[in-house]
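The material for today's practical consists of a large collection of protein records. There is nothing in a record beyond a sequence line and a structure line. Backbone structure tokens are a discrete shorthand for how the chain folds in space. Nothing more is needed to start thinking about how sequence determines fold. As an example, a complete record with its sequence and its structure tokens follows.
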Amino acid sequence: MAPSPPDLATPDPGPPHLAPDDWRRLRDALRYQGRDLHHRSYAVDARRRELLWEEMDRCLALADRIERHLDALDEADAG
């Protein structure tokens, strides 16, 4: 049975509760994926390259969001 779609009327619960090491692994995996997409973009036509670059940008933007989340976790632990 397929999972039901999320209810968009409910408030955003925020990021899932993961250990900081798990967040770091996710961040690093997204950065690796972004680099891989960039590398693969040189082997395709211009139209496909644009799509790969858009996906690369999304991966890197999410990695940056995770980085900020990790910084906030570090500040909370220090404070």
